[in-house]
Amino acid sequence: MPGGALSAQLVRGTVSERGDGRALAGVVVLMLDSSGTAVTRALTNDKGEFGLGAPGPGLYRVRTLRIGFRPQTSDPLRLAVGQDLHVPIALTSVPVLLDTVRVASRNACRSAADSALATHAVWEQARAAFAAAQLTSRDQALDATLLTYERVLDPTFPRVRRQSSTFAHALSAQLWRTTSIDSLRRFGYVLPDLLGGRVFHAPDMNVLLSDAFLEDHCFGLVRGSDGEHVGIEFEPNRDRAEVADISGTVWLRRATAELRSLEFRYVGLKASESKGRPGGAMEFLRLPGGEWAVASWSIRMPVLEQVVERAGATSGAPQHVERVSEIRVTGGELVALSRDDQLLWSRPSLTFRALVRDSVLPRPIDGARIVLRGTQLSGLSGRSGTVAIAGVLPGEYTVDVRTASLDSVAATHTTSVNFTGSGPDIELRIPSANRAVAAWCGYKLPTTPALGLAIGTVTLRGDSAPPWNVAITAEWTAGTPRSASARTDAQGRYRICGIPSNVEFTVRTEIDDTTTAPRTARFGRGSHFAITNVVIDVPASEAGTMFAGSVQAMFNSEPLAGAEVSLPDLGISVRTNEAGRFRIAGIRPGTHRVAVRRIGYAAVEQSVGFAIDRVTSRQFRLAPVATLETVTVTADRRMMSFEENRSLGLGKFLTREELAKMEFRTMGSVMSELGGADVISAGYQACLRTKRIPRWTPGQPAPPNNADNLAQGCQGRQCWSQVYVNGMLVNPGRPTPPFNLNDWNASAIEAIEFYPSQASLPMRYSHPGATCGVFVIHMRLGK
Question: Which domains does the chain show, CATH number per domain?
């Protein structure tokens, strides 16, 4: 044990209630030095015990803070070197009732002395809870279950564009960590980064407890609209006018002085930064044992982008304008807290409840599938038309509803709902298939002369990927020959309006300059649509050359567009369409390795056998690997690691400014000029490795870098560099497979890092397989 620890000065003790001697848990105990500054603090345990270590011998006092009770300070305690002093503390049950606090001033910077004292008394209660929450997360052995989430909102309407969430476990319910109070005082709470983004800092417990926060802000009392709460408003003082700061309100319950919540907003911002109402909030929870925790937290931040406004004929040159592209909300909720496997607290789950009915008749719809767009949440209505979806966060959602009737015309009803977690069930009024047809085609039911809609799908026999953009024509005779045409979408579906519902019509398709035989169809009695599916036979000469299938997300079966499906042995690569489908022709018979990759998902590789005169079909399911971090404070924190690594100078780096000069060049040619990088080109492909070939150890297999392999370009058994895109390894495997640099355009990249040897690698990229270099791509926001 170090000598300093042997001579430490300690103050131990117990805190109890005067009179009955009951131990008091959750009491904040501060050690104050001779100037009144808190040098250390602790939280009493369930036995009322505490321990405080003094920084050195001297004169100290012990101060207690208990929520809802007046603070109490001991007489001076003189501590000698190495002294261990026991101090019992008995608190008198004299509650501080905020019912008696009169709201006379809203700003303590300009208020009378008695109003300032009242404000200070209320703030002391809030600080006691802040301190207890900080100590609970730091010192208490609590197992916390957290639900963290990230939402992206439309900047014009507060509608959820997309949302992701994840559950995490931690030993304490920590929320965000911010920069130091000294940095916040000097530079403010919102700072520009080196690439034009913004970093939004939120106040943590250290900030709220600091004397500097008190000095930098004015405080005043405000009455809650419900009459049950009293608030402490704070705003930056006049000396803070030059920097971005925060203002807000801390709310306490009048009857008990318990802390309830903190809400804040960013002030002193530029006009572009202020759009979207940036700010944040916290809710606090008091546990049965007296500890405190942050029950929920969130930060709302605008994401800014540079756009060029085209000038008019007389308005001069185009201007670069900053605008909000989206609103990002990052936060979390405490789901449960336990200690030693004993549950202390759990949050009631919120359930989205809706009643699905016909848009005209009041009857319920059974079997309707409801999906909250942007999430992985869905539900199915029962016979009464009701649906319940558990675990939904409050907010405004776009809801997609499918019914058996709408499925018959390949339609989905979409609407917006505002879910608060309280109030009556949401009513969803869904049109029938005939009314959906009328809406698409502009018909007026039921008085319009009978017109119908031909719908259906076009598929290739034995092919899992429907043909896209295929021309399809409906023909009929009504006095004179008539026709109408359409093209298939990414799912192979088509719709043709304006066909009289009392005639027989034919449908034919055109694909690869070949017209299929016409198919005859007719509308049913009382129906305004007819389903005609067309199956195209693949010529026998082409059947054995086909590889078709789909790529889906593993957990919700959502189709993944833009996934790369490649056969590296043959040098063939395609990407999936909007429906997650792909098709590859001209496969050489035999067994070939198939690789499927998409950013944000774990890559899949498998061997597939291809036989002549067959269409080989496969469905690939990719598991997501990029999950939301438990804590996020900034609007764009991606480049922080880039700047840290560049400051060390161990690798090769290209910034956005440097890449902007190369936007019309392939990424292979860009990297070929970067020191230490060796680019192997083969046609359109350009693959990367380090010039510093790893040293060969005698007795090990010969390194795969001979002339024969070099002649094969990207298909040779080279030692390829590992590639990370936005922090995710996109070419995993042993040995590392090649990665085509020319799949990326410099205009979509914010910055690049390249590390030619393991000796220069940052810790996060130092993994097995990195012997031939590591290439890191930071994509631009919105690209």
Answer: 7-95 (2.60.40.10), 135-311+318-346 (no CATH), 351-431 (2.60.40.1120), 435-536 (2.60.40.10), 540-622 (2.60.40.1120), 640-779 (2.170.130.10)
